[in-house]
């Protein structure tokens, strides 16, 4: 409680200045009293808050030094009327952080008004029979100042018949009276002209005068007498014009015209005549115009009763105006911190609101609340100000703007309320990482693709706005992803398109994975990754390869040709005898690697058959003696691709019951062969070499013999 009290005291400042100060006069060092240094002023933005009160036009805050100055001359009587105390209250704002301070400026009265009589001439009719010592009330002067500046003393011009007497009224003021010192004689002097001067208590003093004209008349020895010296009444401010407020009554013991009483306003200000009227005959005081408690809640004025003989008496009238709940609360949004970042902590002040109700009592007691679904709340601040603060965490992705209605309601009966809309924008902070549409992507690419072909397109969405939501794509772990897949694909930073960097080969790489990172443009940046699996689809780009029988062209370059494969089949072989099996493989996959076998050429087509899927060469019938001893078979191996690719295999078959019988057949050139027999070639070559060596040896021996001789 002590901390709260200290804080409340620190947020209220009070200055005192005299009225009628010139424009630009210093009121006080506001910034220094608030604890603000000159270096802080540009950032804290000290300013007078507008609360809708007309008094605010009188003050301004300097942006350079933070002092409070008078911006327009103040007239205390215009601001506060006859009130004993006068002050102007307003609020000042400082930003960064946002706070509000209550300022009271007390306006001291200056003796700037002279006493004023309502009439220039006061006419009195006094009978010559009036005995000395009789008093005749005179009109009181009015001074708009307050305090000692409005305390009046009176002086009467020197004359032989009257002196000045003062009578204290119930409100403490002095009423001047003429005191008859000597008996009047109408025959000697029928009239007298006196001067009454009213002097106030100011320094220097100001004065006002009125001429008192005394007509000496014949006998009228009874003045009117009011039934009360002070009449009081209470009326509501919504009383219609012409309504009866009160009735004054004065009686006169004289008869005839001397006893006929008429009622008049005494020396009253013009505003009294504007709002009230007195009936001369009945003494009824009625409203002449609409009353307003907020403008003035008490009226004090004088009435006089005058008989036909000119005698006058005075009374006081006090009318209290009671408040009616006829003013709706006035809501002023002093400051709004919009937009507010979405990561603002709970309790951050986002707006300052001032509510004001000129009514009094419960009619002017206000409650303020927020209406609408928003993470905001309103708390009371100093004076009639309220702070709108964040009640929970903000999230721009859920709501980029909050609209609430500030509702102010008084405690009158019936209660009046007013409302105004408060719009708060939420600015974005980078609190969301990009999210891929899929955690793992799959793409299928045919092998032998073109370089730069589109593989797939990844997409990530970031709920943030602006640069915080602008997503760029990269391959995680390097320029193109995983080490093994580095030269295979690339990703376009803006679109997320993944392109092939080179032509893919199913036989070398059937699938691979890369990690794609999506990163936003916030500070600090946020990112997420997704895995892209690329499956290479096979195409029929490999022909079948025959493993057995080995093709004659299958030898390494520079090496002698491989002799053709042969199989020996006995003459006694029956139908279905397994001769050999053609073995082939295809590097492709699926249908592209399904192989079928077909016998396309044979010396005896009816003797052999080839398994379509097994590649087995079997006898189609029993071998007979009429069949040639040497048989040549050509098999076609074909895959199922589109278009189909194929290879051929040549198989030599010797029909013999034993290997010894087959050797002569093997030494001869195979029927229909396109190349010379390798064995014959080797024999010829060997004979040539041996002959050459023999001739060389003979020559050397002959040369050696000749040399020895």
TrEMBL record:
<feature type="domain" description="Cadherin">
    <location>
        <begin position="569"/>
        <end position="666"/>
    </location>
</feature>
<comment type="function">
    <text>Potential calcium-dependent cell-adhesion protein. May be involved in the establishment and maintenance of specific neuronal connections in the brain.</text>
</comment>
<keyword id="KW-0732">Signal</keyword>
<dbReference type="Pfam" id="PF08266">
    <property type="entry name" value="Cadherin_2"/>
</dbReference>
<keyword id="KW-0472">Membrane</keyword>
<dbReference type="GO" id="GO:0005886">
    <property type="term" value="C:plasma membrane"/>
</dbReference>
<keyword id="KW-0677">Repeat</keyword>
<feature type="domain" description="Cadherin">
    <location>
        <begin position="9"/>
        <end position="117"/>
    </location>
</feature>
<dbReference type="InterPro" id="IPR050174">
    <property type="entry name" value="Protocadherin/Cadherin-CA"/>
</dbReference>
<protein>
    <submittedName>
        <fullName>PCDGH protein</fullName>
    </submittedName>
</protein>
<keyword id="KW-0106">Calcium</keyword>
<keyword id="KW-1003">Cell membrane</keyword>
<keyword id="KW-0130">Cell adhesion</keyword>
<feature type="transmembrane region" description="Helical">
    <location>
        <begin position="681"/>
        <end position="704"/>
    </location>
</feature>
<keyword id="KW-1133">Transmembrane helix</keyword>
<keyword id="KW-0812">Transmembrane</keyword>
<feature type="domain" description="Cadherin">
    <location>
        <begin position="118"/>
        <end position="226"/>
    </location>
</feature>
<dbReference type="InterPro" id="IPR020894">
    <property type="entry name" value="Cadherin_CS"/>
</dbReference>
<dbReference type="InterPro" id="IPR013164">
    <property type="entry name" value="Cadherin_N"/>
</dbReference>
<feature type="domain" description="Cadherin">
    <location>
        <begin position="437"/>
        <end position="546"/>
    </location>
</feature>
<dbReference type="GO" id="GO:0005509">
    <property type="term" value="F:calcium ion binding"/>
</dbReference>
<feature type="domain" description="Cadherin">
    <location>
        <begin position="227"/>
        <end position="331"/>
    </location>
</feature>
<dbReference type="GO" id="GO:0007156">
    <property type="term" value="P:homophilic cell adhesion via plasma membrane adhesion molecules"/>
</dbReference>
<feature type="domain" description="Cadherin">
    <location>
        <begin position="340"/>
        <end position="436"/>
    </location>
</feature>
<dbReference type="Pfam" id="PF00028">
    <property type="entry name" value="Cadherin"/>
</dbReference>
<dbReference type="InterPro" id="IPR015919">
    <property type="entry name" value="Cadherin-like_sf"/>
</dbReference>
<dbReference type="InterPro" id="IPR002126">
    <property type="entry name" value="Cadherin-like_dom"/>
</dbReference>
<keyword id="KW-0325">Glycoprotein</keyword>
């Amino acid at each position: 409680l002590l901390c709260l009290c200290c804080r409340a005291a620190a947020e209220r400042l009070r200055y005192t200045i005299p009225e009628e100060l010139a424009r630009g006069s210093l009121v006080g060092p506001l910034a220094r009293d608030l604890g603000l240094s000159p270096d802080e002023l540009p950032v804290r933005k000290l300013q007078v808050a507008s609360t809708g009160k007309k008094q605010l036009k009188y003050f301004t805050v300097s942006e350079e030094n933070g002092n409070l100055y008078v911006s327009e001359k103040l007239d205390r009587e215009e601001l506060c009327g006859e009130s004993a105390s006068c002050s102007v209250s307003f609020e000042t704002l400082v930003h960064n952080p946002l706070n509000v301070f209550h300022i009271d400026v007390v306006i001291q009265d200056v003796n700037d008004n002279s006493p004023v009589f309502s009439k220039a001439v006061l006419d009195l009719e006094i009978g010559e029979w009036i005995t000395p010592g009789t008093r005749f009330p005179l009109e009181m002067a009015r001074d708009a100042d307050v305090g000692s500046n409005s305390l009046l003393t009176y002086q009467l011009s020197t004359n032989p018949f009257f002196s000045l007497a003062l009578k204290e009224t119930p409100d403490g003021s002095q009423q001047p009276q003429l005191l008859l010192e000597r008996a009047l004689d109408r025959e000697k002097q029928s009239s007298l002209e006196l001067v009454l001067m009213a002097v106030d208590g100011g320094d220097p003093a100001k004065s006002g005068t009125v001429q008192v004209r005394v007509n000496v008349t014949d006998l009228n020895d009874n003045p009117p007498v009011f039934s009360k010296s002070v009449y009081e009444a209470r009326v509501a401010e919504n009383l219609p014009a012409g309504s009866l407020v009160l009735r004054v009554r004065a009686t006169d013991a004289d008869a005839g015209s001397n006893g006929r009483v008429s009622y008049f306003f005494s020396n009253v200000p013009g505003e009294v005549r504007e709002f009230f009227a007195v009936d001369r005959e009945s003494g009824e005081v009625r409203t002449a115009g609409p009353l307003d408690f907020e403008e003035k809640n008490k009226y004090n004025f004088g009435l006089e009763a005058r008989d036909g003989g000119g005698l006058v008496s005075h009374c006081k009238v006090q009318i209290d105006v009671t408040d009616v709940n006829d003013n709706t609360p006035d809501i002023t949004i002093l400051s709004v911190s919009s937009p507010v970042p979405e990561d603002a902590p709970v309790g951050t002040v986002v707006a300052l609101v001032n509510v004001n109700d000129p009514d009094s009592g419960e009619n002017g007691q206000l409650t303020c609340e927020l209406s609408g679904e928003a993470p905001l709340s309103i708390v009371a601040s100093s004076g009639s100000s309220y702070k709108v603060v964040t009640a929970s965490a903000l999230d721009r992705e859920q709501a980029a703007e909050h609209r609430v209605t500030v509702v102010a309601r008084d405690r009158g009966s019936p209660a009046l309320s007013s409302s105004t809309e408060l719009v708060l924008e939420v600015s974005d902070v980078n609190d969301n990482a990009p999210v891929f549409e899929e955690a793992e992507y799959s793409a299928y690419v045919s092998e032998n693709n073109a370089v730069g072909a589109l593989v797939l397109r990844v997409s990530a969405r970031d709920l943030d706005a602006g640069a915080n939501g602008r997503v760029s794509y990269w391959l995680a772990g390097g320029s193109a992803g995983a080490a093994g897949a580095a030269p295979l694909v690339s990703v376009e930073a803006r679109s997320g398109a993944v392109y092939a960097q080179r032509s893919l080969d199913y036989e070398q790489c059937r699938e691979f994975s890369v990690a794609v990172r999506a990163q936003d443009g916030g500070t600090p940046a946020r990112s997420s990754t997704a895995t892209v699996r690329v499956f290479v689809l096979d195409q029929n780009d490999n022909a079948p390869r025959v493993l057995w029988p080995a093709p004659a062209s299958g030898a390494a370059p520079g090496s002698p040709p491989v002799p053709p494969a042969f199989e020996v089949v006995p003459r006694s072989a029956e139908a279905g005898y397994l001769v050999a099996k053609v073995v082939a493989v295809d590097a492709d996959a699926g249908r592209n690697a399904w192989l079928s076998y077909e016998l396309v050429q044979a010396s005896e087509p009816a003797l052999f058959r080839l398994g379509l899927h097994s590649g087995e060469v079997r006898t189609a019938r029993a071998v007979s003696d009429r069949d040639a001893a040497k048989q040549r078979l050509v098999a076609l191996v074909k895959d199922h691709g589109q278009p189909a690719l194929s290879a051929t295999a040549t198989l030599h078959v010797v029909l013999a019951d034993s290997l010894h019988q087959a050797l002569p057949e093997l030494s001869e050139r195979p029927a229909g062969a396109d190349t010379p027999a390798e064995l014959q070639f080797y024999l010829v070559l060997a004979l040539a070499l041996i002959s050459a060596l023999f001739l060389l040896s003979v020559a050397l021996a002959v040369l050696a013999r000749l040399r020895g001789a």
